[in-house]
Amino acid sequence: MPVETVIRFVTEGQHAPSGHRTGVFQAAYQLWRSNTLIEPARSELRALLDWFKDNLPQPDRLVPSQSPHAAETATAWIRESASRHLTELRRLAAIVGDTGIAVKELQTTRPGQVVYRDAYQVVALPFADTPQ
Question: Are 29 and 108 within 8 A, CB to CB?
Answer without folding.
Answer: no
